[in-house]
Write a structure and sequence with these properties.
The protein is α/β, with parallel strands linked by helices. It has helices at 79-88, 146-158, 180-188, 198-207, 233-258, 286-291, 297-300; strands spanning 17-21, 32-37, 50-55, 58-64, 93-102, 112-114, 117-120, 163-165, 168-171, 193-195, 211-220. Strands 1, 2, 3, 4, 5, 6, 7, 8, 9, 10 and 11 form an eleven-stranded mixed sheet that branches. β3 and β4 form a beta hairpin. The longest helix has 26 residues, at 233-258. The structure holds the ligand CSC[C@H]1O[C@H](OP(=O)(O)O)[C@H](O)[C@@H]1O and adenine (ADE). Adenine (ADE) is lined by residues 99-101, 177-178, 194-196, 219-220, 222, 231, 236.
């Protein structure tokens, strides 16, 4: 019997859906009981307040990744505060909405890719909640939640959206766009899309035992395509505004499905820390353990 249903005897999960809005998505429509709230974390302040509400009766929490008005660039995002704030708010599932460049002819602007892999080439970022005093190594073999990915694909196809399931998202540091040599290198690696934000976001979501999936929304062909101008912010924003309407329709469609009471995630995202800690209890740093109260409390506080 699937561990995905409450009847399997595993603890029933009442999902709370986190939505991380990328470039062009700084608010979310249709939420009832909307309320912006400040959520403080031991890692500092998230990009902005979090927007709490309900959609079709499902509890949702929206975070504008770059802050409302887009004041924060990818390298300066406080990814640990963002993920901790969502965890601290009870979020069990995250849908990341991200603007990307396409590295494949068959993925034109306006296309949505439900990615299933990453190559992380970011470097100037704090990438883990763990550190000296509490060491942990989580699996990132499958860095995105296939359970959420199935629902995203099903609802996107139901809406008639141009969507591809599967693909690799190349995470670059930025903030400058890629050189042509870099863009063609990523294409030679078989990557599908390129962006600047989904790492360490996905790694931190895994450490926080939150199921995480990305809708990569193509806004441009980066700078490799001979028949298209190289990417500019104006081009991204222009396409993102049309993508945003489809993104809102997709969100409205998936939340009722993702919000249904369920068992544990069949992919194990919500038990990622089960066998990941390696530091002996008597060598763990109390100050770090205090900071891990939300993201790792399940494994650190059990008898
Ligand atoms: C404005 S183009 C570059 C910018 O857009 C993407 O942001 P997000 O992933 O939050 O949608 C990309 O990662 C860059 O941050
Ligand atoms: N071409 C591109 N490179 C990096 N991030 C992007 N976001 C949107 N388009 C992008």
């Amino acid at each position: 019997m699937s561990t995905n249903s409450p009847s399997s005897g595993t603890p029933a999960v009442e999902p709370v859906i986190g939505l991380i809005g990328g470039s062009g998505l700084y608010d979310i429509d249709g939420l009832e009981d909307k309320e912006w709230r400040t959520v403080e974390t031991p890692w500092g302040m998230p990009s902005d307040q979090l927007l709490f509400g309900r959609l079709a009766g499902v509890r949702c929490v929206f975070l504008p990744r770059h802050g409302r008005g887009h004041p924060i660039p990818p390298s300066r995002l406080n990814y640990r505060a963002n993920i901790d704030a969502l965890k601290r708010s009870g979020v069990t599932d995250i849908v990341s909405l991200s603007a990307v460049g396409s590295l494949k002819e068959e993925l034109p602007p306006g296309h949505f890719v439900i990615i299933d892999q990453f190559i992380d080439r970011s470097f100037a970022r704090e990438k883990s909640f763990f550190d000296t005093g509490c060491v942990a190594h989580v699996s990132m073999a499958d860095p995105l939640c296939p359970r959420i990915g199935d629902t995203l694909e099903d609802k996107a196809r139901g809406l008639g959206l141009d969507v591809t399931r599967g693909g690799t998202y190349l995470v670059m540091e930025g903030p400058q766009f890629s050189t042509r040599a870099e863009s063609n290198l990523y294409r030679s690696w078989g990557c599908s899309v390129v962006g600047m934000t989904n790492m360490p976001e996905a790694k931190l979501a895994r450490e926080a035992e939150i199921c995480y999936a990305t809708v990569a929304m193509v806004t441009d062909y980066d700078c490799w395509h001979p028949d298209h101008d190289s990417v500019t912010v104006d081009a991204v924003v222009k396409v993102m505004q049309s993508n945003a309407d489809r993104a809102r329709a997709l969100v409205a469609s998936v939340i009722p499905a993702l919000g249904q009471p369920r068992g544990l995630c069949r992919a194990g995202c919500d038990r990622a820390l089960e066998h990941a800690l390696i530091t002996a209890p008597d060598r763990r740093d109390p100050a770090l353990l205090a900071k891990l109260d939300a993201v790792a409390g399940r494994v650190l506080n059990r008898a």
